[in-house]
Amino acid sequence: MRIARIGLVGALLLGASACQTDDGGPVTRTLPPLAFVRYINAVPDTNNLTVRFIDQIDNVPQSFFNVPFRGLGQGGYQGVEAGDQRLRVFRHDPNLSTTTGGLGATTEQLADTTFTFVAGQYYTMLHLGYARAGQIPAQRVILINDAHPATNTSVSVRAIHAGLGIGAVDIFATPLPTTTLVGATPAFTNVAFQGVSAYATLPVGQFAAQIALTGTTASAAAAAAPAGIAGTAAADPVAGATVAGSVLTAIAFPASVPGSPAAAAAAPSVIWFSDRQPPRTTTP
């Protein structure tokens, strides 16, 4: 199974091959059992966020740095040693960049939590809620087990409701160029805040995800799924609505809070993320 951007595994293997014994001979380092995790920032009232795994340095993600609101941590899924792992999330302050080589610095700690990761499984860490004191719900990181469906000749899609202040929603997958929801059947019904749908199988072809309050047909936010790129003998495919075997997630985000440092988003929005790439078409 080919997952998008599992960059840390290659780095770990490279580091392993570089080790030597005291007499200069090579050492083969055995990687521990790994799970794979990604981080998505859905906190609408703070600046960019940075994740740090704090109990160990080896075999944990190092690249979830300066992640913007509605953004994905660099590298997508990253390897993490299976078992209990403690992590903290900090605000990122670009005004401190002079002390860190121009990359900014972390300041206030927002979250401190421990998750249990199972070897061979894939996870999304979704950070949602309000960062400002006294606001409900307060910010927190939740762990979602991304049980990817088997590869097939269709497209697999699921939805996650991270839209603060938006009630339960129906989520539609409307073929393009159709935009009306009148008479349409929801792909997912009555998804509550923080809810994660099961994967649905859709025919190959361009479509959009649209959300509406449960039982209504007034679209609150919509976004066309990425089309993807078909594979060739020279290049592997890129996941999208027109490429069979793609696995995608549509996340409903809230608007950013006016006056906050979060990236401007004047209205709720839907953002697509690739969960798994289609089968390879090149020879490994």
Short characterization:
With 284 residues, this protein is mostly beta strands. It contains one helix and 15 strands.
Describe the structure.
With 284 residues, the protein is mainly β. The chain has one helix at 7-17, and strands spanning 34-42, 49-53, 78-81, 83-93, 105-117, 122-128, 140-145, 155-161, 169-175, 188-191, 200-202, 207-213, 221-224, 247-253, 269-276. It folds into two domains: 1-17 and 28-147, no CATH class; 151-284. The strands form four sheets. It has a four-stranded mixed sheet with strand order 3-1-6-7. Strands 11-8-14-15 form a four-stranded mixed sheet, with no helix packed on it. It is globular and about 75 Å long. The model is unreliable at 5-14 and 98-103 (pLDDT under 50).
Indicate the low-confidence ranges by residue numbers.
5-14, 98-103
- Mean pLDDT comes to 87
- Estimated share of beta-strand residues: 35-45%
The spatial strand order of the largest sheet comes to: 3-1-6-7
Count of helical segments?
1
Helical content stands at: under 10%
Structural class: mainly beta
Order of helices and strands: HEEEEEEEEEEEEEEE
Question: Count of DSSP E strands?
Answer: 15
Largest sheet descriptor: 4 strands, mixed
Broad shape:
globular
| CA gyration radius, whole angstroms | 20 Å
- N- to C-terminal distance: 12 Å
**How many structural units, i.e. domains?**
2
Could you name the key traits of this structure?
globular; 36% strand; 284 residues; 2 domains; four-stranded mixed β-sheet; mainly beta
